[in-house]
Amino acid sequence: MAYVPGFDHDVFVSYCHGDDRPWIRSFYELLKAALREQLGVAASVWIDEEALEKSEDFRRGIPQSVGKSALLLLLPSNQYVRSSYCVDTECAAFESTIPQKRSRFDAKEFQNQLFAFRAVILPVDNNEHWDLIKGASDYTFHDGHFRLPVSTKEFETQIHSLVVDMASLLKRMRNHTTKVFLYPRDPGANVETSHSMLKSELFDNGYCVLPDRLTKIDEQLLESSLAIFLLDQGDDPRMLQLMETIAKRGQHPWVVWESPAARSTSDAKRQLFLFHVEKRLESSRRRYFDSTIRPDQLKGEIIQLLKPASRVVFSPGEKRHVSLIYDVQKPEEVDRADNIFFSWNSEFDFDLPSAGQPSRPTRSDGVLLIWGKAEEAWASDQFERLDGVPGRKGLCVFDPEKSSTVREIRARVGDRWHISEHYGAFAPAQLDPFFSPLRRAQSTGGPV
What we know:
It is flat and about 85 Å long. The protein has 3 domains: 9-175, Toll/interleukin-1 receptor homology (TIR) domain (Rossmann fold); 179-306, Rossmann fold; 320-444, Rossmann fold (3-Layer(aba) Sandwich). Helices cover 41% and strands 16% of the residues. The protein is an alpha/beta fold. The chain starts with 8 loop residues before the first strand and ends with a helix. The protein has helices at residues 21-39, 49-53, 62-67, 84-95, 98-104, 153-175, 189-204, 217-222, 237-249, 260-263, 268-280, 295-306, 331-344, 376-386, 403-413, 432-444, and strands at residues 9-14, 45-46, 69-74, 116-120, 137-140, 179-183, 208-210, 226-231, 254-258, 286-289, 320-325, 348-351, 366-371, 392-397, 417-421.
C-alpha cells in the first residue's frame, strides 16, 4: 500500500535498461530504506525488478504503473535520452498526469509542482535531459565522468538531499488528502475483515485513514472529516473516551457500527457499554448502524457520507470552452496564442477569433486575454469589454515594459482575474492556475 492515498505507488523509478543494473539495484535499495526512515513507514517504490534481474526487457504493465504513481524519479544518462520507451512512454505517461495531480491537491503550493525528480547517474551531452519534465530538480550521482560509487560520501550526500525532498513532498501530498478516522486502529478478529474492507475502499478513493500513529489520537480524530467506530466484543477503554470527545467537540459526522459479535455478547459490562453508546451518546452528527447492517452496506453508506470529497479518478465530461482573445494583426501574438492553444488543446475547446473578429466570450466558461505587442489602447478596450462577462478570466502578459500597467490592473481586479507575466520564453506552468479550476469543474460537472 502506498504512503499517499489514492495511488498504487509513491515513487516510480524510470531507468534505461542498458545502464549499469547492479548500481541501479543498489541505488534502489538505499532509496527505499532512506524513504522508510524519513516517512516512518515503507513507501511503495516501483521499479522494473524483473528487468533488473534478467537480460530481457519485459516492460509489462509499465505505463499503467507510471500513471498510478504519486512521484516520478528518472535516472538520466546518454542512453536514457536515446531510449524511446523511457522518453516517449514513461516520461510522457507521467507528464500527462501532472494537471490531474495539481487539481487533486488544490493548494497554492502545488500549482506549479511537477511531482518529478531527476537523479542524473551519468553526464548527459548538452544537458538534454533538461527537456524531460522541464523544470524538475536535478540531483547529481556522477563525478563528471562516471557514476558515484554507492559507498562514497558524495553519493551519500546526494541521496540524502534527494530523499529529504521526496519525503517532504510525499508528506505534503498526504497531509492535503481528506482524512477519515477508522477505529480501532488494530481491530479484533470479529471486525478485522470489515475494517480491512473499509480501509482499502477509503484508500483506493483517495482518503487518508487515521490514526496512523499512536500519539495524539484525539487530535487525529478531530482533524478528520469523518470518524468511524467499529464495535466488537472486546473492551477498549479509549473508544468511549474518543466517542465522547467527538460528540462534544467534533464538527464533522461520525458513524458507529455495531458488529454482530458485539450484539451477541453475554458480558454484562459490554452490554451496558453498547446501551450507553446507542442511547446516551446521541448526536445530530452521529449515525448508528446496528448489527442488521452488513459490512458492504456500511461501506456504501460511508462513501455516500464523504461525498463530495476529492477523489483521484476524475470522470470524463464535455470539454470546457475557453475564449482566446489576441490581436490577430500581430504575428507575435498569434505565435503566443499558438503556444497556449497547443499546450491545452487536448483538455479544452478553444474559441478563437473568426475573420479577424474577437471570439465571443459570453458563451465560454473562461476567457484568456493575451497581451504582448498589441497597443495599450487595444488591450484596454478588450479588458473593459471582458471584465464584466461571466466565467473565469485570465490575463497573460508577455511584455515586461507593461509591468506598471499590470500592477494597476492587479490592484483593480483583485482575484477576479488570474494574471501571469512571462519574461522571455513562455512558461506554461504559470498559466495552470488559470486552467485548474476549469479542469476541476469539468471533472465534477459543476460550475466554474
